[in-house]
Write a structure and sequence with these properties.
16% strand, Spore Coat Polysaccharide Biosynthesis Protein SpsA, Chain A, 325 residues
């Protein structure tokens, strides 16, 4: 499923990467969401029976994704963005995983980061196992949206992507947060996607609404795991601290011991609610604790520590925290 909005610059390369998959039994649903550039001309230039193309007035990404899901004939829904590139074995490996792991709702992949047309040595690599992912997803988005393969029936059973402007963007993390409360998920360690960073990308815009919405979603996850109200100060304090936002009223009295204890309780609550073995979440719990510790130190300096830490200095501090944890 390929939603398109003014994506002509990289659209042809994106489409070609899907048509050249080693897995052949698929339909490519392309929805042009009101583009004003040459995107439709590029789409129309293809004569491939696997392509089902649709054009509509602009309704936004979440609503377009829901439309694509409703149009899809198959059991699995593979996502890709208009400027990303799927490597040839992507669908083969993901379909194989889903066929051999019944009950799973999502399988994503690792991704290489490209800056415009330049390949980099940076990657999006996230935990792969279900317990680690579900622990991490209480706080952060551990899926590359453009890489995921979804179970259509699961997505439809929970009413798809939210189109509520108060809950998205990020429409992907909002959906994952609902899915992982009920279904197992996974990432493949294989790098099967090129994730392109472009100047117009919303995720790279300093004025984007992501941070505020991410905190809201994380607070909801924390409250769900603990079985308490999302409005409680301790819930809001932990969610804000994990995203390096430090409202004085929330941080006052929220000491390190309280923050650490609450994080541990979230993981224990998640295990209890899902029936997962908490021991299998241990490595992710350790990673979350390191991030919490670093953010807590940053909070104590009024946010100056994170501004001063970059490059090798930041890496060395993380290594030091690993040694003493």
């Amino acid at each position: 499923m390929l939603p398109v909005y003014n994506g002509s610059q990289y659209l042809r390369q994106s489409i070609e990467s899907i048509l050249q998959q080693s897995y052949r039994n698929f339909e490519l649903i392309i929805i042009n969401d009101g583009s004003q550039d040459d995107s439709q001309k590029i789409i129309d230039s293809y004569n491939d029976s696997r392509i089902r193309a649709f054009e509509q007035a602009n309704i936004g990404l979440a609503a377009t994704l829901n439309k694509g899901i409703s149009l899809a004939k198959g059991r699995w829904i593979a996502r890709q963005d208009q400027d990303d590139v799927s490597f040839p074995e992507r669908l083969t490996k993901q379909v194989h995983f889903m066929n051999t792991h019944p009950g799973y709702a999502i399988v994503g992949t690792a991704a290489q980061i490209w800056v415009e047309d330049t390949k980099t040595d940076r990657f999006h690599r996230h935990p792969c196992s279900d317990p680690e992912l579900r622990a991490g997803l209480m706080f952060y988005n551990y899926f590359v949206h453009s890489s995921v393969l979804l179970d259509k029936s699961v997505v439809q059973s929970i009413e798809g992507y939210s189109t509520d402007p108060q809950r998205q963007p990020p429409e992907d993390y909002e959906l994952w947060s609902r899915i992982v409360k009920q279904y197992p998920v996974a990432n493949l360690s294989n790098t099967l996607l090129a994730y392109r960073e472009v100047g117009s990308s919303m995720s790279r815009d300093e004025k984007n609404p992501f941070s505020e919405k991410l905190i809201i979603l994380s607070a909801e996850n924390i409250a769900w795991a603990l079985g308490i109200s999302v409005e409680l100060d301790e819930v809001q304090a932990l969610a804000h601290l994990m995203y390096r936002v430090y409202p004085p009223k929330l941080m006052r009295g929220f000491g390190w011991s309280k923050a650490k204890k609450l994080l541990d309780q979230v993981i224990a609550g998640l295990a209890l609610k899902t029936g997962l073995d908490q021991r299998q979440m241990h490595s992710q719990q350790v990673q979350l604790l390191k991030l919490l510790r670093l953010n807590y130190l940053d909070c104590l300096t009024g946010g100056r520590l994170n501004q001063m830490l970059f490059g090798k200095l930041r890496t060395r501090l993380k290594q030091f925290l690993k040694v003493i944890s």
